[in-house]
Amino acid sequence: MRVRSAVTAAAAGALLALTATTAHAGPADGLAVDPQGTIAADGTVTLSGSYRCDEDGAGPVFVASTLVQGDRSTGIGGTQAVCDGQVHTWTNSAVVKEPGYLPGEARVEAGLMQLDPTGPLGLPMPDFRAQQSQDVVLES
Known about the structure:
Elements: H1 2-16, E1 30-33, E2 36-39, E3 44-52, E4 61-69, E5 72-80, E6 87-95, E7 104-116, E8 125-139
Parallel strand pairs: 2-8
Antiparallel strand pairs: 1-3, 2-3, 3-6, 4-5, 4-7, 7-8
């Protein structure tokens, strides 16, 4: 746990230097991915990092993540964000069955996604407030 805390602290520090590049991002919106993830014996993949966002009242905000390794790509959870301008940590997990992921190099595509309730036909539409791609090492 001590190593993970140090990695998350480093990601939080890097997050403070991020500038969001999406159209609806506020000045404090940012997202970081920890450079290490885990794979449990049962196939549970866990990814983590940190984020910061300001509340704009338009709809709920989530941290979405996708894990890519070779030709395999899987969405790994979605954590609801607390948008109060402070840096927070996120952790997403999912059980991935056969074929599973292997320890080693992979890539995480993460996004700070807000559901905009004013989409067409009254359906909420995703709006990415921040995005981050990070090479990671998966450990068992």
